[in-house]
Amino acid sequence: MNVTTVWKGKRAFTSEGPSGYAVGMDATAAYGGDSKGATPMELLLAGLGGCMGIDITMILDAFLDKITGIEIEAQGTRSEGMPKGFTSIDLIFKVDGDIPDYRIWKAIQMAEEKYCAVSASLSADIHPKLILNGVDTPRP
Q1: Cα–Cα distance between 58 and 61 in angstroms, integer?
Q2: Cα separation of 70 and 132, whole Å?
Q3: Which of 20, 59, 81, 128: disulfide with 107, CB 3.0–4.6 Å?
């Protein structure tokens, strides 16, 4: 896979990969940017959420008609020193629908441990949490 990132001035960049979709990035004012795009660290968390979500929907494909909503919130904790990479990421899966929690937990586990290329590429500890139909559901 090849992604090209082009400088657009100051701290702004645009990246485009084989999909043909461009993604704009910028730094916040604290780092000399204009905040006119997502930060690279935001995109990293978004990529993790998207990767896990795609894998989970593929694993649960036969049950998607019973799911009415999936929202994945990624909360990253960064190191104090440089580089300020993520040391820990909490993934909160908010799922609504008529599906047992054990099926979702199994899909989360399979996505994290076997299929999600983004989680496999990170050195941060990832901690999933499931909220099914508004209820915090412990991992079996």
Answers
A1: 5
A2: 9
A3: 59
